[in-house]
Records
---
Amino acid sequence: MKKKLWISIGVLITAFSLQANAATYLNQTDADKLSNYINHNSLACMSCHAINQKTVGPAFIDISRRYKNNPQTLSRLTLHIANGSTGVWGSMNMPSNMATEAQAKTLSRLILNLIKK
Ligand code: HEC
């Protein structure tokens, strides 16, 4: 009986800290900027991506986390958004021409900003 109680308390604490974690790493202001930019330019990104969870493509927050300390990131992501991407995250491909190169550069910056500094 006592054991069960401790297990439930453990589960609760874990659930709370996971939630707190998700809330602290996402920069909500920049998430809004990214969504607004995508909508404003009528881009198709959100049919395969979401900010906070994996769908067809990786979550934007996970892309931000993966590259945050990599100095070549901006040019690399710009290229991949403009020309498509294969084999980095799994077996699904990202098609090319989803955005112009100028748009791709802005999008890369916005995606990289999603992680709170
Ligand atoms: C048809 C589905 C689809 C659309 C539309 C799409 N993507 Fe993707 N995207 C993917 C998939 C799948 C991957 C993973 C590709 C891989 O593993 O290399 C990906 C990967 C990425 C990456 C990571 C590239 C890397 O080098 O790690 C970025 C950044 C990205 N997409 C941004 C965007 C943006 C911004 C848009 C809109 C302009 C967009 N995507 C539209 C499916 C899509």
---
Amino acid sequence: MFSIWSKRGLGVVLLAFLMAGCGQKSDVTQPVETGVTGADIIAADEHPDAWLSHGRNYAEDRFSPLAQVTSDNVSDLGLAWSFDLGTSRGIEVTPIVHDGVMYVTGTWNVVHALDARTGEELWRYDPEVDRSRAAYMCCDVVNRGVAIWGDKIFTGTIDGRLIAIDAATGEEVWDVLTVDLSRPYSITGAPRIVKGKVIIGNGGAELGVRGYVTAYDAQTGEQAWRFYTVPGNPEDGFETSLMEEISSTWTGQWWVEGGGGTVWDSMAYDPDLDLFYIGVGNGSPWNHRRRSPEGGDNLFLSSIVALRPDTGEYVWHYQTTPAETWDYTATQHMILADLDIAGETRRVIMQAPKNGFFYILDAATGELLSAENFVPVNWATHIDMETGRPVEVDGARWNSDQPFIQLPGPLGAHNWHPMSYSHDTGLVYIPAQEAPWAYIDDPDYAYQAGVWNTGGDFFINALPSDAAMFKAVKSMMKGRLLAWDPVNQKQVWAVEHGGPWNGGVLSTAGGLVFQGTADAHFAAYDAATGDEKWKFFTQTGIVAAPITYELDGEQYVTVAAGWGGSFVLGYGGVFPTGSQAKVGKILTFKLEAEGKLQPLEVARAVNSVPKPITDDPAVISAGFIAYGTYCGICHGDHAYSSGLVPNLRYSSITTDETAWQSVVLGGALANAGMPGFSDYLSRQEAESIRAYVISEANSDRTETFYEEVSVTD
Ligand code: HEC
């Protein structure tokens, strides 16, 4: 979560930038009659023809033993097939491959089954989600993939459902609602399946929800257990004594907003320890003093929590960021591994969360073994190994009337984009980034349902008009592929990219690391040195992580290309990277293949600039505030669209008051993902937004700091 918008909407603000033991393996195979079992997922290395689980195995290491494609021959890698997802929205999916079939998700939770050899579509399942729920998506209408178990495929939807589909036919088997639809919940993460239970979390902390994960019986869809990550309203009675216990770490009336703590992405499972791990998200609202005014660590925000997969029973937790206040989620990818630490082999769980520190914990107990920053950070000096807590810097905690320009910001030093742990090099490859942010308290904060609630005002110096300053901001935004030695907690090599928000990572026994980039390329690097060995122009930016599998003696490498997600919606237009929208694709490569992508249509409609409808600064500034609150999250900072959704500056609808009102208030395009705002905006406010957008189109800001980047090889 990431927003530049305060609850009062004061601003889409560029300054912000400137500124054990009990597990039995046999259990794991239950209760599947046919198809994929837990034993298969555990023995993923024995199934090179498959990619059976989100992170490839329960350890989620995303390291493949396949070694046909190597540093020496990767230059012969070519496009074997591509499948057009027919969407311009972000594509974050990790495909699942089984029995020669690849299962992927596209926009609006459509599931496609593809022939893994040819890309031919075998079936397509459309859950017909309520597209108006797009209004509750913090970070694009994305999905990170399906799960497989037995003979079924499982997928979560943006309208909070978990659905089982027959893997062979694409027929729906069951469909359960996992959330209270009166709150702004959504699902973007991939389910994980352990011992016949499908486990799914949700998102929505920015908008005001209470986080939890739920386990459902894979056969029937019946709920097995639910684990809340934060306590509810004490007056309703606590569900468990654990909830009561952790409620002592909260103050104020956190339950009004819900508290947050959503589990929207990462999970992992250790079959020997029989522990299931969840990564817990940020607080709602972000600002701790507005969420829990009398203090408190606010468990289990920003924590890794270990549970028993049979019952959801709590075993241990480690909180990365006590009293979280910066959107520092611990939902980032977690990897289990055996590492030699101080002469001893330890079973560990590793995470590089948003807050910039790389953590190694004992997987059985949660004991902190080491933590070092993997990018520059300025909010804490180090992690105190005695207490396990970060040693914070004065001023970082929103407690002055001056903004604190912080590294990392809410985009994180590492966001959801999966990392990878190579068993050969012993290195963790992290899609890392530097993206600063200025945090400032909003003393007048009051919760407003259905929109972003940060508890901060980010409006200071709201409208930079200076190109040099803009370039300076841009130059602070960095992205890199980082090879990290977890044992010694130090960088081994790094490849600098053009900016942040690059793709997830795959490493292979072929000595390669694969990653896609924001600037529309898919590349292979030598795992030991970081030398670039191969590169392919993908026409659109990549945020998803690649996979690999082998069929008929040939190794395939697949990546989903499709520029999108929070950063892109908000800033893709302001910080162009060379990515085009509208070409979301599944791309599959193998040696000696010579496929070509259809040439890119570089049809950028350059419509005429609409005539101003008012020059009243009060109207335009009211429009700016309302735009920041309700529109900027999708249509972009300063109405600079990334191209994922229409560029309002040049939309013909902007020139037509009736059409504008019917779209913006009436919800005429709600089925296309453009929610109607009649619950929030009056006619007059909608008009002021129109006036603001048109004034932006006529402003000289376009020339001053928008530089178009051409989309080329
Ligand atoms: C959740 C994301 C989201 C939010 C928030 C959002 N929009 Fe949209 N908007 C869209 C999408 C997606 C479309 C394209 C729909 C389609 O394909 O026709 C769109 C289309 C439009 C269009 C039609 C443009 C055209 O040329 O077809 C207008 C006008 C518009 N939005 C205005 C607004 C305004 C004003 C706000 C704030 C009050 C807003 N939108 C908030 C996602 C959003």
